[in-house]
Amino acid sequence: MLPELLLMVALGQASDPVSAALARVEQVNAYRLVLRSQGRRGEEVIRYAYRRPGFIRMDLVSPYPGAVVIYSPETRRVRLWPFGSPEQRAGLSLSPLNPLVRSARGHRVDQSDVASLLRNVQRLHRQGQLRLLGEAPVDGHRSHHLVVQGDAGHRVGEVAGYELWLDAETLFPRRVISRDRWGEVIERVRLEEIVIDPDLPDGFFTP
Fold this sequence. Notes:
By secondary structure, this protein is α+β, with helices and mostly antiparallel strands. It has helices at residues 2-11, 17-26, 114-126, and strands at 30-39, 42-51, 55-62, 68-72, 77-81, 92-94, 128-138, 141-150, 161-167, 173-179, 185-196.
């Protein structure tokens, strides 16, 4: 019991650590990271960057090496460069709903940021339970380990439960596992090489 109480104090909001993490992430102006996702349809590796109020850039490493995807909240459109080099050629302009720019698991580019993930966890928590499992290292970083399980019949999409490891200092998720109503793993996600408020070059989101 004592480790759980200490963990709740560390998270800053004893009753709702997910909201504490979301509030911290929403204050960040920009970030970049490497996203590694493993699921039923294989693995994806993406160099991911975000800047408020919602600019997103994905440089794909696998399974489509070189492809670049950029979402602009100003146009609400996604631009796709299947063969890379966005500075040298025009990209395809697509709706975020277009299957060409959705992940193997159907995730939308415009809803792919860390805050959107935490909002989904929060939605599940509102009709579910949260358990704090103490501290655990992730890639050499101290992290808070917790599980959110939806009540019977309550899911967010196909997700009935989340397992998260939140960085002890930034509250950024470092690892996320989503499970279906039978407890089977849907997706395992690792967020690596996280840099908050990086120095991104001019035109990075508008090549």
